[in-house]
Each structure stands twice: as C-alpha cells, then as structure tokens.
Amino acid sequence: MAIYLSPSMLSIDFTKVGEQLAIVEQAGVPYIHLDVMDGVFVPNISFGIPVIKGIRKASNMVFDAHLMIVDPERYVEQFRDAGADIINFHVEATKDPAGCIAKIKESGAKVGITIKPKTPVETIKPYLKDVDMALVMTVEPGFGGQKFMADQVPKIAQLAAWKKEMGLSYDIEVDGGITLDNVREVLDAGANVIVAGSAVFGKEDIAGAAKGFMEIFKEYEAK
Ligand code: DX5
Ligand code: ZN
C-alpha cells in the first residue's frame, strides 16, 4: 500500500512560505496538509481561502485541506476553486454529513471525513462507503505541537478492519503529534496518510525530517 506524507503548513515559517513549500516538494513530499480553523469549531483561527489560492500557484503538491469550521458545506466550492484536491470535513461540524459528502464530490475534490478524539469511530461507519479518506485526529484539533494521543490508535485499526471487511479502498489519515518515534505505531495499525507539522516544518532540516518519514514509509510499502 502506498503511504503518503502530508506535512502541516500550520507549522511553516510564514515569512518563508514559498521557500519552505519548495523544500518539501523538492524532497519528494506528495501532499501538503492545510489546516483551516474558524475560531468557532476550534478555539483558534488559522488561514483560509485566499492563502490557499495564493500558494496554489507555487506548488504542484496534492492540497489536503482539513476544514475545522462549522457547517463546512457552505464553503466547499470556494475551497475547491482555491485549489483543494482533498476536502476533509469534521462529522461533528455539520448537521448533514451525507449532504456535505455529496457537495464535495460534486465539486470534483476527493472527500475526507474526520473525527475528533472524543468521537467514536462508529459515528462515521455509515459514510465510509462514500468517502475517499477517513481522518483520525490524535490530538484535540486547534493547535500544532501537541502530544500524540496513543489511545486513538484502536480507531485506526478499526477503520483498517472495516475497509477489508467491506471491500473498500479509502485512505486512512492520521493527524496530530506524529513524530519519527511514534509513526510506526500508526502505520502498524493501518494508516497510510501521515500528517506531521512540528516534526517537519518545526525542524531545522526540513528536507531531512521529511525524508526521515519517507524512509520509514518505504519499509512498510515493501512489506
Ligand atoms: C491540529 C491540526 C494538525 C496539526 C498537526 O488541529 O489539525 O494538522 O497542525 O501538527 P503537529 O504534527 O505538530 O501535531
Ligand atoms: Zn490537520
């Protein structure tokens, strides 16, 4: 199974966005993770549509948008037009997950459904047949640089088991507190899209950090 690194732009040096995006892209990183926060769904505000639109001109990476906003269906078209390739929405943030999935599909983007740590994984089971990705948060959403919650790993394993049982092919993304020291734990459980913010952009040697993850992925891809 192919495994993809999705470094979170939340931890980028915003005085050097173009430069640091080029560093990861040239290192062969396939995705860039874009954390959009509205100050309502989460107690923080990050960046939104104009920033994504701006960096789209500077990057050919897959834009993996993670919408931490209430009623995400309102903005699907704008994020798609800005350049999002994958749109992850939180199941807790909408009254109509099925409608949100339909809207994202209609836009032409891939659909990701996301759960916070306190949300049981069963909540998204009915939607798995209709999505391209399931995203398991391993920190409370809102901030980069938090500690990995190992108690969320069984959700990854459950999603991997359901994928097999139901003959589906969705990606399993994991986001929050991932480092070179704990990434094997989520890979062992069946994750194949790995978000890392501070463990990539927070490092002096950004390319080296990204390559460190991708070396580990190669071991798993060869299995
Ligand atoms: C948290 C965000 C994460 C975060 C990851 O709300 O969704 O993507 O930026 O950063 P690290 O890897 O530093 O936990
Ligand atoms: Zn995220």
From TrEMBL:
- List, alphabetically, the SUPFAM superfamilies matched: Ribulose-phoshate binding barrel (SSF51366)
Cofactor info, note text: Binds 1 divalent metal cation per subunit.
Quick one: which pathway? Carbohydrate degradation
Which cofactors does this gene product need?
A: Fe(2+); a divalent metal cation; Mn(2+); Co(2+)
Active site positions, chain numbering: 35, 175
Catalytically driven reaction(s): D-ribulose 5-phosphate = D-xylulose 5-phosphate
Identify the EC number(s): 5.1.3.1
Q: Which CDD domains does UniProt cross-reference here? A: RPE
Protein name, as recorded: Ribulose-phosphate 3-epimerase
Query: Which species is this UniProt entry from?
Result: Anaerotignum lactatifermentans DSM 14214
Q: Species lineage, top-down?
A: Bacteria, Bacillati, Bacillota, Clostridia, Lachnospirales
